[in-house]
């Protein structure tokens, strides 16, 4: 809720906006009104404009606008409720009678004493018109019959006397049954027409707070140890060469640090070793989840050290070249010189080549290159690590000592990966193309392929790109024996080519092999499930999925572990997925329900069933809160059939239980504190209570409009006291920062997926 000072500040802002847009007559028309208040929606903008235009002139003066807004800002609950009723009463609208009392200086005069705008009642046709616009502005697509159901649900609830129309008193009485709505009516009009300003941050940076240091102690300790080791190596090398001059001291110190860091880069990409370490006590001490972030950090450190190292050597050569009898600077740099270092005195030449390769590698590793459809530039320039390590062995006489162990492990991992990839190709046996440009691949599962929920694999499809490997999270549970699922959103060049490839009317025949009996039976079951799933998701007739069976060759490399492996050792896990970020949690939620099914017990006499306590050495979970945030309605189609199944299984195996709670948010929908959305949200609530399912997704869980109030969400989690809370997030980096800050505030541990 906005304070009085903020309300006044907002009114001043409106005055300034009005002055910038109004013409010489100091009045604005409808288009100017939309611009002034940053209101884009046509229907509600016209309704507001008509109500504010008290003289019916077709334009609004600054006086009319400010008096109307002042009443809404400073008015009481009944004033705002009357205004809401007038917005919904769309027929016979006489604006000159609506805000007559605004001309009275005392703003405490109640709008309730005014004659109602329009006919003074709302009939079903008017309600249907308003709800249709609410749906359109919330980006919700529902069939016409669902709109009729919403209209009927709200109309029957509000029409207390069954007269065929809703009066103001009836609407007020119905709203009193929705405390949240009545509470939102006390929010000022500023938040109706323009979002409130962002909250002020603490005067202390987040990185200097005690909570931050406590929650990130392993990462900070690791960074401290890494920095200290580099300083120690630099100091030891500098002391050994102190007699050779300042430039040599700097060059040798940086060179020793480069020996360590270039070898450490390989350690940070030993994915199989790191996956194994996640299952050991070391995972509680070392920040293994951050290995890609540290790999990037060390890469920048290497480039900086290499630049200083090269610059110091050039400065030293320049100093030597000025002496009599010494070669010129160009000769030092471009030709082999005895005593300079490196194999055959080629340290200068190999150093310059190394510097060029490092610059190219880091330049093409930037997100703007990788995510702009030029992944192949990143891929091929990153393969230059082979040349870099070879040149480093030739360049630095001691580098091999640092590199021998991590280098052997790295080569071993690559050989194992290559052998695994080429031992036998797998096949994509089924594909679902979702309208939100998500490709759901069903791949036959190798016989000895074992993974944990939330793990990811590298996928190669020769038909798309022969040499490109891309990481994707496995969305199926490990308990699913026959197949693996991958859900791939089309964001870059390769993923778009994948989606387009499977859109072809006729896929190329790629040596189809006969399917196993179990897979043939599974296909038959899947055909039935697909037909059923199309009716589960309540969307407009235009949405659906393209489902086809195929036999496309592919290769996978993995599996590799992620932070989500910690979920089963948590006591209270909060899983937050934004968009396609639900993928790792899809596997985890399925695995949880598989474990429920295995532990289901029933009495042979009365057939009463229950589920034993799930907690054991592998799974300590007491409570799971699953939060899924999507931009619009169509993105819920990704996993809505899976979530429906999970809801049904929990209802059967844990009647009335709250072990798994789902929370759905749709950010494009008008929020509950938006006056325009009040009628729609009431109708959706009423229909959901009547049918026991949500009109947007078809789930029992009601989809909430707008973005989550993270303070309220985490406060509720903390109040439940179900054990130590750990938050797992997969989604955009911007949202990760917001959630991480709230986790720091509440003392929750935060884990984020890193690719």
UniProtKB/TrEMBL annotation:
It catalyses: NADPH + 2 O2 = 2 superoxide + NADP(+) + H(+). PROSITE patterns: EF_HAND_1, EF_HAND_2, FAD_FR. The chain crosses the membrane at residues 220-239, 245-271, 292-315, 347-365, 377-396, 402-420, 573-596. CDD domains: EFh, NOX_Duox_like_FAD_NADP. GO terms for biological process: defense response; superoxide anion generation. GO terms for cellular component: NADPH oxidase complex. Signal peptide: none annotated. It is found in: Membrane. Residues 40-75, 146-181 form the EF-hand domain. Its main location: membrane. It is a multi-pass membrane protein. The keyword Magnesium does not apply. Keywords: Calcium, FAD, Flavoprotein, Membrane, Metal-binding, NADP, Oxidoreductase, Transmembrane, Transmembrane helix. SUPFAM superfamilies: EF-hand, Ferredoxin reductase-like, C-terminal NADP-linked domain, Riboflavin synthase domain-like. InterPro entries: Cyt_b245_heavy_chain (IPR000778), EF-hand-dom_pair (IPR011992), EF_Hand_1_Ca_BS (IPR018247), EF_hand_dom (IPR002048), FAD-bd_8 (IPR013112), FAD-bd_FR_type (IPR017927), Fe3_Rdtase_TM_dom (IPR013130), Fe_red_NAD-bd_6 (IPR013121). It comes from the Eukaryota. The keyword Transmembrane helix applies. Residues 421-566 form the FAD-binding FR-type domain. One of its GO terms (molecular function) is calcium ion binding. This is NADPH oxidase 5.
């Amino acid at each position: 809720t906005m304070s009085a000072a903020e309300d006044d500040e907002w009114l001043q802002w409106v005055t300034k906006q009005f002055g910038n847009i109004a013409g010489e007559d100091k009045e604005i028309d409808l288009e100017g009104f939309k611009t002034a208040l940053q209101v884009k929606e046509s229907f509600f903008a016209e309704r507001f404009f008509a109500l504010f235009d008290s003289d019916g002139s077709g334009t609004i003066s600054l006086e009319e606008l400010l008096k109307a807004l002042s009443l809404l800002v400073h008015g009481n609950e009944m004033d705002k409720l009357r205004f809401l009723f007038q917005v919904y009463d769309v027929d016979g609208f006489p604006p000159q009678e609506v805000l007559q009392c605004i001309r009275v200086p005392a703003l405490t005069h109640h709008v309730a004493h005014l004659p109602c705008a329009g006919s003074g009642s709302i009939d079903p046709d008017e309600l249907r018109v308003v709800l249709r616009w609410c749906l359109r502005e919330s980006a919700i697509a529902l069939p016409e019959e669902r709109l009729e159901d919403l209209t009927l649900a709200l109309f029957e609830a509000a029409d207390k006397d069954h007269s065929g129309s809703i009066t103001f008193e009836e609407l007020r009485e119905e709203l009193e049954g929705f405390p949240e709505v009545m509470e939102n009516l006390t929010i000022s009009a500023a938040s109706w027409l323009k979002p409130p300003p962002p909250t002020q941050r603490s005067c202390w940076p987040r990185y200097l707070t005690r909570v931050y240091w406590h929650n990130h102690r392993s990462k900070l300790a690791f960074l401290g140890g890494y920095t200290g080791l580099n300083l120690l190596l630099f100091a030891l090398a500098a002391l050994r060469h102190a007699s050779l001059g300042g430039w040599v001291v700097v060059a040798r110190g940086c060179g020793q640090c480069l020996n360590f860091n270039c070898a450490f880069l390989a350690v940070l990409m030993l994915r199989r070793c790191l996956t194994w370490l996640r299952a050991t006590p070391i995972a509680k001490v070392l920040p293994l989840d951050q290995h890609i972030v540290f790999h990037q950090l060390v890469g920048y450190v290497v480039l900086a050290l290499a630049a200083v190292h090269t610059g110091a050597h050039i400065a030293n050569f320049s100093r030597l070249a000025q002496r009599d009898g010494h070669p010129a600077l160009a000769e030092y740099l471009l030709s082999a010189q005895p005593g300079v270092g490196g194999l055959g005195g080629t340290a200068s030449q190999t150093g310059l080549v190394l510097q060029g390769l490092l610059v190219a590698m880091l330049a093409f590793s930037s997100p703007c290159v990788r995510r702009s459809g030029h992944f192949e530039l990143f891929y091929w320039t990153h393969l230059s690590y082979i040349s870099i390590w070879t040149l480093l062995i030739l360049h630095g006489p001691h580098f091999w000592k640092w590199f021998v162990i991590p280098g052997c492990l790295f080569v071993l991992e690559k050989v194992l990966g290559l052998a695994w990839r080429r031992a036998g190709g797998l096949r994509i046996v089924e594909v679902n193309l979702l309208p939100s440009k998500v490709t759901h691949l069903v791949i036959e599962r190798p016989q000895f392929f074992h993974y944990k929920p939330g793990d990811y694999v590298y996928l190669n499809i020769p038909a798309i790109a022969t040499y490109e490997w891309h990481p994707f999270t496995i969305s199926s549970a490990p308990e699913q024996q026959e197949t693996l699922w991958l859900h791939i959103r089309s964001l870059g060049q390769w993923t778009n080519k994948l989606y387009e490839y499977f859109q072809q009317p006729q896929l190329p025949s790629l040596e189809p092999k006969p399917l196993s009996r179990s897979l043939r039976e599974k296909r038959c079951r899947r055909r039935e499930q697909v037909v059923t799933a199309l009716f589960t998701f309540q969307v407009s007739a235009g949405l659906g999925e393209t489902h086809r069976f195929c036999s496309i060759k592919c290769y996978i490399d993995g599996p590799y572990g992620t932070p989500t492996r910690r979920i089963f050792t948590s006591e209270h896990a909060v899983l937050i997925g934004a968009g396609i970020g639900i993928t790792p949690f899809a596997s985890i939620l399925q695995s949880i329900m598989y474990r429920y099914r295995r532990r289901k017990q029933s009495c042979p006499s009365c057939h009463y069933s229950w589920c034993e306590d799930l907690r054991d050495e592998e799974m300590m979970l007491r409570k799971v809160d699953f939060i899924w945030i999507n931009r619009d309605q169509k993105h819920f189609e990704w996993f809505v059939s899976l979530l429906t199944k999970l809801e049904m299984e929990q209802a059967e195996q844990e009647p009335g239980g709250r072990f798994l709670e789902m929370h759905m948010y749709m950010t494009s929908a008008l929020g509950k504190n938006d006056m325009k959305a009040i009628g729609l949200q009431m109708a959706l609530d009423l229909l959901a209570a009547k049918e026991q399912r949500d009109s947007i997704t078809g789930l029992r869980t009601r989809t909430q409009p707008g973005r989550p109030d993270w303070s309220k969400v985490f406060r509720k989690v903390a109040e439940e006291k179900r054990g130590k809370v750990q938050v797992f997030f997969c989604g955009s980096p911007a949202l990760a920062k917001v959630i991480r800050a709230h986790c720091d505030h509440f003392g929750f541990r935060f884990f984020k997926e890193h690719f």
